[in-house]
Amino acid sequence: MSFLSRIGFIETEEQERARLAHAPEGSTNHYLSTLPVTIEEWPKDLLVELPWEPPRTDRPYRVVVVPIEFRKDALPEGVEEEPLPRKRHSGSWMCAVVFSDHPSYPVGGFRIDVPAAEIARGRKVDLAGTLAQS
């Protein structure tokens, strides 16, 4: 547990999982609450395979993105500062799709907005290792 989580500034893993689990069953957030965090570092410019497995989707899809630009969550009107504890993985990332077998998310300049909680539960793709295998 990080120092900021211990002092109550940022939510703990358990608090984040509970918050995501409160979303309606079948929603992306509810699905994400069942997955472990696998990427702790700042994900900008990483290759990240998103967790698109059943039950989130009707069949498994491979969608690999590069997070390009972070966008923080908008606060509700009249709220000046995010309440404590702050969300562990808040905001979203504008991402470029660099590989996809999903028909709705083509490669070639296509951009998608991905919640930071989803990026954190993705899988880093090691391009050097992948290219060495070919």
What labels would you give this structure?
134 residues; 20% strand; globular; single chain; alpha+beta; 5 helices; 5-stranded antiparallel sheet
Structure description:
This protein is an alpha+beta fold and 134 residues long. The chain has helices spanning 3-6, 13-21, 28-32, 116-120, 127-133, and strands at 48-49, 63-71, 92-100, 111-115, 123-124. The protein has a five-stranded antiparallel beta sheet. The mean pLDDT is 90.
SSE layout and pairing:
Layout (H helix, E strand, L loop, with lengths): L2 H4 L6 H9 L6 H5 L15 E2 L13 E9 L20 E9 L10 E5 H5 L2 E2 L2 H7 L1
Antiparallel strand pairs: 1-2, 1-5, 2-3, 3-4
The rounded Rg comes to: 16 Å
Question: Unreliable runs, pLDDT <50, ≥5 residues?
Answer: none
Strand order of the largest sheet: 4-3-2-1-5
Order of helices and strands: HHHEEEEHEH
Number of helices: 5
**Major beta sheet summary:** 5 strands, antiparallel
Task: Report the strand count.
Answer: 5
